[in-house]
Amino acid sequence: MTARAAAVSPFPWNEAIGIGLGVLRLAPDAFWRMTPRELALALRARGIGVAAPLGRAAFADLMRRYPDG
Known about the structure:
Blueprint: H1 3-7, H2 13-23, H3 28-33, H4 36-45, H5 56-65
């Protein structure tokens, strides 16, 4: 496995289904026809932001400020 493949996390289906059906109140067939991008845009339109991933520099800063040990 390459380093790039190891860094990729699986799609968060449980959260997506919960938001699609529970928050957006989509019918199941409408949810399953959506692409992840369409779901993200629907959330943004409702004012529910999807946070950008934490960058390497910000993560290093958090580790420096709040060490584990």
